[in-house]
Amino acid sequence: xxxxxxxxxxxKRVIDYAVKPRVNSTFxxxxxxxxHSLNPFDELSLEAxxxxxxxxxxxxxxxxHPCPTVSDILAISAGPAxxxxxxxxxxxxxxxxxxxxxIDPTTASGREKEGGTEGDSAELEPLGxxxxxxxxxxxxxxxxxxxxxxxxxxxxxxxxxxxAGLLGWGQATSAAEIAFEKKDDDSWMVKVTKxxxxxxxxxxxxxxxVVTTDLRLNEPRFATLPNIMKAKKKKxxxxxxxxxxxxxxxxxxxxxxxxxxxxKGGGKVQDVDGMIGRLKxxxxx
Length: 285
Known about the structure:
The termini are far apart. A hairpin with a 2-residue loop joins strand 9 and strand 10. It contains six helices and twelve strands. 25% of the residues lie in helices and 25% in strands.
């Protein structure tokens, strides 16, 4: 029996990819008083979810990509109040509704009691995010989770795998292509292709499933002005970690954060013999 897709798309507010990160004066965190935007990997996931819905929508022109009917697309983000901005962007792109799990940076994760540093922010560790998403999946009855393979701020690349393990679902990581295949009993299989050293790897799994996305998956659309205005009327729920019974306390503490050393300038040599002599001086040969 065919079951409609109920998609969950986690999104994260990160420092914009065009901004050069700077370490704060206490060497404990990155300066966050800069432009932020939607994590690029999460944009890919959201675009994929929207295309699934478009492929499943009946119309005069049949889509060449078969897909189960998409019931709704739910975007979720956890963090400070400004996370609402990326959720509004997600809904302007095409998400049906959103949930904001608000975390107060001044009290987040009990760090004040534990002697947290000034650089601490309202950010969950990957395991905390996975536990939160598991609770949301169960409460919202999701059967397909698609998220970026990593966020460009911490590059952990852990949340999707942890979530699949907690749920006991099949998983596919770093997806470069996602397709659905219908079986004889009207159930659906998810076919995911990823790039690996020397070629590509393809895996199949029945729903429910967790998929993480890579940069080659698609080209995200821009949110148009009419859709931005429509997004203001879409439902955005406010929740807390306590609403989902999740403990957000951090298990790791950043001791020190430093920028990489500046690269030394290069030098010129007159000829090949000069280059060989210079390499010998450096101990390279």
